[in-house]
Amino acid sequence: MALNRAKEEILKKIRQALIRKAPTQSEPNFVSDIYAKPDEEDLLVMFAQNLVKTKAAFFYCENKEDFTQQLQAYSHSKGFKHMHVWEPTLQGMLKEVPLAVINNELSWGQAQVGITSCDYLVARTGTILYTSQTASGRRLAIYPPHHIVVAYANQVVYDLEDALRNLRIKYHKNFPSMVCLETGPSRTADIEKTLVLGAHGPKELTVFLIDDAPYSDSSE
Amino acid sequence: MSKASEHFLQDADNKVFDKEHRRKINFNIGKYENSVKNGTYQFADHELARKRTSFIKTQVMENLDKYLMEFENNFTRQGGKVIWARDANEALVEIEKIFKAKNAKSVVKSKTMTSEEIHLNEFLEKRNIEVVETDLGEYIVQLNGQKPYHIVTPAMHMSRQDVSELFANKLGVPYIEDPQELTLIARNILRQKYLNADIGMTGANFIVADVGGISVTENEGNARMSTTFPKTQITVVGIEKVIPSIIDLALFLPMLAHSGTGQQITVYNTLLTGPRKPDETDGPEEMYVVLIDNGRTTLLADLEKRQALNCIRCGACLNACPVYKNIGGHTYNTTYSGPIGSVITPHYRGMEDFKHLSFASSLCGACTSVCPVKIDLHNLLLLNRKQSVKEGLATKWEVRGFKLFTMAMKNRAWMNFGGSTLKNIALSFLFKNSWGKHRTMPELAPKSFNQQWKERKKGK
Description:
- Helices cover about 25% and strands about 20% of the residues of chain A.
- Chain A has helices at about 5-15, 45-55, 65-80, 90-95, 160-170, and strands spanning about 55-60, 85, 100, 115, 120, 125-130, 145-150, 155, 180, 185-190, 195, 205-210.
- The longest helix of chain A is centred in the first third of the chain and has 15 residues, at about 65-80.
- Chain B starts with a helix and ends with a helix.
- Classes of the chains: A alpha/beta, B alpha/beta.
């Protein structure tokens, strides 16, 4: 590797600085839970409670059929026109459904809704974890004004730490270029601390959680 | 007195008596305080959480070279490029090289204080590059030709009326006071900017060593957009922002969110580990991380004050500080304002010009008590004062005044000499510069304790 003067000098300065060591701190307790124990024990319900607190919407679906029916009803009530679905698994699920979804990336700029999968749902915070490694890429979850997430009950974990540990194992060979933790619709409070939804990302976020079908992912 | 400190005194004087300014800041910080209070309920043991963050960051600083190398190795393996910059100028030169190589004419930026620190916007604008700040607060202050007022809430000093007027003047839109409508205007303008910009720039809240990535925290989605559409991504970040592992995010993200805004967790926390991968459908083709020293290694070498590098830039110490609340963010005239700014700026930019900030503190310790990584801020301010005196930077008047004061205090005969009137006059002259014009010197009692003691003893 070519000599990198700046790098060498910065590292040298750091090493010189660190000749004098800070007094050793005693290690704090890293075992006990720093968070308050939630009243709800069912992780699925806990996730739903916390998700709704972030001003997102939640739909419980008993099975796939239930999901497609609820999605149709939701879509009609909202009057969605440009619903984009790019992931093959989701496209397959919606194939037989009388719902005008767009399966290709043409005209994506007009997309009203992006329907995507996710990797994990975090119960304690109501967070959705997804990566850039699906066909939805980085775009579909952030650009359309409405983000719809389709998830399964066995994707729910208690805390961020569980989600991140699982993630590291799942992608240890091929880590995605982007991992996003999404907690609620986009918002800002930059003007007089007044909450406004839909600053730059989606104004609305909706999670459909399917209880029976096990989550399977082609990338695993 | 340095020019910077003269300006500081003048600006502080003006701001402190500006009732409208005080109203806006109290309103904003009041709302912040409520959210943080409500957010505390998520923790069973917030103090333990602070001990953990403090411990981890301290371990990182003691091994900073190793963690930076680990980050670089991992990030490079994933196709990213790391640039090391010793100072602001070197960072700017390297960034300009990228712009030239890409023939880039425009950049969308998400909020980055490090870019403020190196004065990136002015530098790029002089080279005819269109620079667009995309965080709403940053966008507002950029339109207004100002610097961020606060490291987390850049437009805290502006009311909705101020923003409405600004938008009407600069964007030619009708005057509307509704924050919802104002946000929508910015949203629509900026959506086009993301799609057309040649380069997307961000800062980083954390450099994550074990996965070779940077983590960006935001509520609006503008950083997500800025790192999705432009073909090239550049991230500027200080070398101290490292955490060892992706797992540590589970601790640091909620701590940052809680102290920054009172949220349980911020809406978007995005980990970026490199450019688009061959099997991915979108994302930038190239990703650069510029690691900036710019004075940080000087602070690292100062064992007593090293812990100031543990800062995660949540802004809690600003909001808690009675001085900040009175003089406001712009008065500091530094990139990093408030207690943490007063602590680090003299080390980044020179003790002589910025020592006055360490004196502009009541040492009440509110900053220390709210810091999510337990930085001993008010004691670091004291250490800065000590250093400035040691380096001979205190004024001649102050040094002499204290010498004479010490001399008098150590000598009983001097202390009892002359009665209180004379002593009051002497003291007020001795400290007339440092005491300031808005405070009256406390009056000494007519008779000293020593004198009274003697007299009463006699009377018995």
